[in-house]
Model the fold of this input.
Amino acid sequence: MFKKILSVLMVVAMVACLFTACGGNEDAGKTDATTFKIGAIGPTTGDAAIYGQAVMNAAQLAVDEINAAGGINGAQIEFKPADDEHNAEKSVNAYNDLKDWGMQILMGTVTSTPCIAVVEETHNDNMFMLTPSGSAVDCIRYDNAFRVCFSDPNQGLASADYIAAQKLGTKIAVIYNSSDAYSSGIYEKFMAEAKVKNLNVVAEGAFTADSNKDFTVQLQQAKSAGADLLFLPIYYQEASLILAQADKMGYDPAVFGVDGMDGILTVENFDTALAEGVMLLTPFAADAEDKLTQDFVTAYKAKYNEVPNQFAADAYDAIYIIKAAIEKSGATPDMSVSDLCNAIKGAMTQITVDGVTGLGMTWTADGEPNKAPKGMKIQNGAYVAM
Done:
């Protein structure tokens, strides 16, 4: 009798397992014939949250606009953001969580170090990946990965060329983060191009993530060398400290940065007057007068009650770039992740996109964008074109 009861229970368990996938996530890995699932990864908390929050906000804005206009070839977009706190391990964990959700395309990651870790995962899965702002070279080392922003070397090269062309400094000092892929990548290319352009670099000061609060040694070195221009290929948090400490020293050089400088006007307890006159290369300016930019800025301000930064602009363009590539390829949401990736990456080299970060943007097979950088200056607490 006991054996008969046991046999019945085993049959019931087997039937239940068939219906429930034995307790697994029944939605994981499934495709939906009517919906593209786009995931996003970035720091929405922590020191780099200003970047991640802007990216997620702008991406959601673009998704809402596209869905309201009928979607992508009639298919709607489901969008899901995930926080990585600008941490590589947490970024990989976020990627795996999004895979369980059913992500088919990754818009991310936002910052370079996590992006380098996650691109390994997307490569293994052959999932299409478009990072809005991961600028380190290795962020897109595989053929499934593309980017919206300029790479670090391209920022370094463009900065040296711009400084030389505009004659912005006779003696230049560089302060960079040698422990950060973003900063050191820009620095290396800048120094190589500075030699080509005969720029006079009189001081180089490095710091690391463990020594990013006191910059008096680097600033004193620059001041003693007579540097009249500081080149800061770093993020805005350290830049705000450098400006404040230079002011206390009575050192007032011109300052030139790259896209990581964007956000300096929002640093808590920072005297924004110290950023007056700071110059940077960025592909986006919220006060640009073209209709595309103004429509984006108006919509973003209406939804989030703030002016979008360059990271928001990169993400907004990223969603529309994905849309353009899907439309060009004829891809459908019922395709496998790998087939979808193959279709989209093939289309990326064939599309041309007018976005808020550049008109007539195109992409090479190695994932790099072609567009023109813009020089900006902070005046009266706002970015204006140089």
Observations:
- Residues 313 and 328 are 22 Å apart (CA to CA).
- The domain at 35-150+290-371 is CATH 3.40.50.2300 (Rossmann fold).
- The radius of gyration is 24 Å.
- The chain is about 45% helix and 20% strand.
